[in-house]
Amino acid sequence: MTTNDAKRGAGPAQVAGPARAAGTEDSGPHSNGVARRLPGILRSGWNNIGFELRGYFRTPDAVFFTFLFPLVMLGIFGVAFQTSGEVGARADGTGGVTMAAYYLPGMAAAGLLLIGVQNLATDIARERSDGWLRRLGGTPLSPVSYFIGKIGMILVTALAQLLLLIAFAVVAFQVELPTEPELWGRLAWLFGLGIIAMALLGVALSALPRSSRSATAVILPVVLLLQFISGVYLQFSMLPEWLQQLASLFPLKWLAQGMRSVFLPDHFQLQELGESWDLGLVALNLVAWLAAGLALSLLTFRWQRRS
């Protein structure tokens, strides 16, 4: 669904961009003091972050379907259920939240999935299928620099998306944010573990499509299915127990659960499968998927598609 067509459409001149960044210090607006102090591989990776960001934001489909899509969905759910009243109230009628507030953590988790898995997997798959990676493999650009650019782009866009999503929820729906510093610290480590795990899984998943045309068809169903069973579009407590158990095998469920522990009142944990936020299990599962994504990426990544 996403691709950096803008950086691939001009032929051989575009290939020279990363290669030039690998060999020089003066390669455009990102040749600042930080880049000059870095070793060669890190310097070219730093410059490649800017290259990837420009390519990303020049493709409207990428910006909409992976950057703005969670905001659009939160807006739809917030408006559609605005008259439904609060959810999750205690027996005495207190402690409930609006539907917009309830869906905010799920959309925050889904945003990391879309940017880390969907965007990166389709982007790399298409670059490989179109021969872009094969040409890069013949340049001085190191694979380390290539992935610094990719991961840097993912981190920047994911952080910008999360901040924009939170701001949108506050401005449009008056969602109340946590006030405890501990919860913001929890959000920070959830974001860090979540986006790195999703990015590595995106790299690994990019090996599945056999062509650029099939990239979206292969990756999109996986992404959609995980969102529906992990408490993003449907209230997780309303799903059958067997489906909740199935969702527990995948990282999005744990990331969404962790996000709920940040943005929802503490009594909402009683609606979880184990009637607890289980933050230790959340961290353990995200670390396990991060390690699995790293191992799979190292095993499957190639500069060119296998015949």
TrEMBL record:
Ranges of residues in domain ABC transmembrane type-2: 61-307
Subcellular location: Membrane
InterPro entries the record matches: ABC-2_transporter (IPR052902), ABC2_TM (IPR013525), ABC2_TM_bact-type (IPR047817)
Source superkingdom: Bacteria
Alphabetically ordered keywords of this record: Membrane, Transmembrane, Transmembrane helix
Topological relation to the membrane, as annotated: Multi-pass membrane protein
Positions of region (Disordered): 1-36
Pfam families xref list: ABC2_membrane_3
Transmembrane regions: 62-81, 101-121, 151-175, 187-208, 215-236, 279-301
Protein name in the entry: ABC transporter permease
Species this protein is from: Leucobacter alluvii
Taxonomic classification: Bacteria, Bacillati, Actinomycetota, Actinomycetes, Micrococcales
